[in-house]
Specification:
170 residues; mainly beta; 8-stranded antiparallel beta barrel; disordered N terminus
């Protein structure tokens, strides 16, 4: 396996009908490894949930979980994104994902762009997915601090983003 080499031909074109991968900078940390292709792109809208916690004498908003509906290009709701970075498609297939890398977003108030490795459960649209990217984020970040009177209070911050799902090339 070669590391750090650039193909003269450039990246392979996605198969007909497949979504194009997102446009990332040359030094992006969230590029999907070679050998994987994008097969599904969904638009997520929802909230990031935070809780005010006392940490080392400071009061900070700590991330708890996301809650988002994911829609296809026609606006049809097809999946949900929730606790422990799970994804559940309406066909019953599911993913449990883990963040493996991130890029800072173009705007400070937006969520980081992330790469997640995924383990799938069941057959269906998410059945063979190995990676998920969260890109094109808008919103989702809490204020940096909370107050002592807010300890244990939950804060729901609206966000939107695109989720791109990848499987191994056949």
């Amino acid at each position: 396996m070669l590391v750090g080499c650039v193909s003269v031909l450039g990246p392979a074109a996605p198969p007909p009908g497949s979504p194009a991968p997102p446009s990332l900078g040359l030094f992006s940390n969230i590029k999907v490894p070679d050998g994987y292709e994008p097969v599904l792109r969904l638009n997520g809208k929802g909230v990031q949930i935070f809780r005010c916690e006392a940490i080392d004498g400071q009061y900070l908003w700590r991330f708890r979980q996301p809650e988002a509906d994911l829609a296809d290009d026609s606006g049809q709701l097809v999946a949900r994104h929730g606790a422990n970075f799970t994804f559940e498609h309406r066909d019953g297939s599911r993913l449990v994902a883990t963040i493996t890398a991130y890029d800072d977003p173009p705007k400070r108030d937006d969520l980081r762009w992330v790469l997640m490795s995924a383990k799938s459960v069941g057959k269906g649209a998410l059945g063979s997915i190995a990676y998920v990217q969260r890109v094109n984020t808008s919103g989702g970040m809490p204020p940096s601090n909370c107050q002592a009177i807010e300890v244990n209070r939950l804060l729901r911050v609206n966000f939107s983003s695109d989720f791109v799902f990848y499987r191994a090339r056949h």
